[in-house]
Specification:
- The structure is a single chain.
- The chain has 384 residues and is of the alpha/beta class.
- The chain has twelve helices and 18 strands.
- The protein has helices at 31-40, 55-62, 78-88, 108-121, 163-176, 183-189, 209-222, 266-278, 284-287, 300-313, 336-346, 365-368, and strands at residues 2-7, 25-26, 29-30, 45-50, 68-73, 95-100, 123-129, 136-137, 143-145, 153-162, 195-198, 228-240, 245-247, 250-252, 257-258, 316-326, 354-359, 372-383.
- Strands 5-4-1-6-10-7-11 form a seven-stranded mixed β-sheet. A five-stranded mixed β-sheet has the order 15-12-18-16-17.
- Strand 8 and strand 9 form a beta hairpin.
- The radius of gyration is 27 Å and the shape is elongated.
- It starts with a strand and ends with a strand.
C-alpha cells in the first residue's frame, strides 16, 4: 500500500501572514487542502504532520477529503516532523511519498514518476534541470568555482521510498546526529541510490507572498473559464394529517402537513440538492440519510446551514437561488417574503439574490389533487 506524508509544520515567517502558510487560501481553497487532495489521488491514505495547537484548523481545512487522514505532531525540525509522520503510518504501508504541504501545485505526472521510480529503484525524488549558472562562493561571497550545470538538478518533493529503506535512513541519521536538507540526502548517506525523476517547474514551494501570486496565476491559466457552477434540485413530500406544514422554514397554517423523516420542508430539500449538485457533492440522501435517527424531525433550515458550511469548505458559495413551490393549497403568496428572508439569511445573501415563487397545477397531478407538494430549485455557485 502507498501512503503519503504531507508536511504542514512550517511557521512561514517569510510569508508574513501571521498564520501557518499552508492554511492560507489559494483561490478560495486552503493550500494544505490542495496539497493533500492531489496526493490523495495517488495514495491509500495520508499522514498530515502539523503543530498540535493547529490540528483543529487542519481538520477543518481537510474535512471531506476522500481518503483516510492520519495526524502526527510537527517536530522542531523538518527531519523530526518526517520521522513523526513515518511513525504514524500503519503496518500495511509498503511505500511512502513525502511531500511539502507548501507545494500545492504538484501534478499527476510528477507524482506518478516518483512512484514508478521508487517501485523500480527503492527511492526516487522529483527534480528539474538547473537552468541558471551556479557558483560556489567563499565566506566573503567571492565566487570560487562554477560547476557544470548539466550535472546539476533542482530537487523537489514529492520524494518516494520503499518504507523500510527510508525508515532505516532516518534511524541512521538520528543515531549519528546527521541533519540533511531533504529525505533523499538521508538515503544517499547510507548508500541507497536515489533516482531523480522528472518534476515540473510549476511545482513551486510557497514561501513568499509573491509565490502565492504566481501560484494563483498558474491556476487561473489552467482553468480560464469562469468558475461558475449551476445545480438543480427537486423534492416532493406527501400531505398527511397530524404534521405541520413547513416551507422555507416558515410554519404555514393548514389542515395537513408534509410527511418525512425530518420536518419534510420540500422547498429547502430541493434547494440543498441544487447546491450539492452544483458542487458535485452528491445529494441530501448521501449527507443526511433517513436511516439516521439524528435527523428525525430536524429542522431543514439547520441542514441548510450544514450544506452552506460544506460549500465553504470547498471554496464555494451561493451567488443566487430560485425556488419554485408547486401546491394547489394553501395559497402561499403572503408567506413568500418570510421564506425569502429565511433563505437569504441562511446563505448569507442579500434578499435580492434569493427568489421564491409558488404555483398550482390547475388541479392536475398529485399536487393538484392535494396529495402532496413538490418543489424545484436552481442555484448558481461561485468560487469564494
Amino acid at each position: 500500500m502507498w501512503y503519503a506524508i504531507v508536511l504542514g509544520g512550517g511557521a512561514g515567517t517569510r510569508m508574513g501572514a501571521g498564520v501557518n502558510k499552508v492554511l492560507l487560501p489559494l483561490r478560495g481553497i486552503p493550500v494544505i487542502r490542495r496539497s493533500v487532495e492531489i496526493m490523495a489521488r495517488h495514495a491509500d491514505g495520508i499522514a498530515v504532520v502539523c503543530p498540535d495547537a493547529e490540528r483543529p484548523l487542519f481538520e477543518d481545512a481537510l474535512r471531506g477529503v476522500d481518503r483516510e487522514i492520519l495526524y502526527a505532531s510537527a517536530g522542531e525540525t523538518r527531519q523530526t516532523s518526517v520521522r513523526n509522520g513515518l511513525c504514524a503510518l500503519p503496518d500495511a504501508c509498503d511505500y511512502v511519498m513525502i511531500h511539502d504541504g507548501a507545494r500545492c501545485l504538484a501534478d499527476d505526472g510528477t507524482i506518478l514518476a516518483v512512484k514508478r521510480g521508487a517501485e523500480a529503484q527503492g527511492a526516487a525524488a522529483a527534480s528539474t534541470p538547473c537552468v541558471d549558472t551556479v557558483k560556489t562562493v567563499d565566506a566573503q561571497g567571492i565566487a570560487v568555482g562554477t560547476p557544470d550545470r548539466s550535472a546539476l538538478r533542482c530537487v523537489q518533493t514529492p520524494q518516494a521510498f520503499r518504507r523500510d529503506l527510508i525508515v532505516r535512513a532516518h534511524e541512521a541519521a538520528r543515531r549519528d546526529g546527521f541533519v540533511g536538507t531533504d529525505d533523499a540526502s538521508l538515503a544517499e548517506r547510507i548508500g541507497i541510490p536515489v533516482l531523480l525523476t522528472e518534476g515540473s517547474r510549476r511545482n513551486i514551494k510557497l514561501t513568499t507572498p509573491e509565490d502565492l501570486a504566481v501560484a494563483g496565476t498558474y491556476l487561473e491559466n489552467e482553468n480560464p473559464l469562469p468558475d461558475l457552477r449551476i445545480g438543480s434540485g427537486y423534492d416532493v413530500h406527501r400531505l398527511v394529517s397530524g404534521r405541520k406544514l413547513i416551507l422555507c422554514g416558515v410554519v404555514i397554517p393548514h389542515e395537513t402537513g408534509l410527511d418525512g423523516h425530518s420536518d419534510a420542508d420540500a422547498a429547502v430539500h430541493a434547494l440543498m440538492d441544487a447546491m450539492l449538485g452544483a458542487a458535485a457533492l452528491g445529494d441530501i440522501g448521501r449527507h443526511f440519510p433517513d436511516s439516521d435517527e439524528r435527523y428525525r424531525g430536524i429542522s431543514s433550515m439547520k441542514l441548510l446551514d450544514r450544506v452552506c458550511a460544506l460549500l465553504r469548505e470547498h471554496g464555494l458559495r451561493v451567488a443566487n437561488a430560485d425556488v419554485t413551490i408547486v401546491a394547489q393549497r394553501p395559497k402561499l403568496a403572503s408567506f413568500i417574503p418570510a421564506m425569502r428572508r429565511n433563505l437569504a439569511e441562511a446563505m448569507d445573501l442579500p434578499p435580492d439574490r434569493v427568489n421564491v415563487k409558488a404555483t398550482t397545477t390547475e388541479r392536475l397531478g398529485f399536487e393538484g389533487e392535494e396529495k402532496g407538494i413538490s418543489a424545484q430549485a436552481v442555484v448558481l455557485l461561485t468560487r469564494v
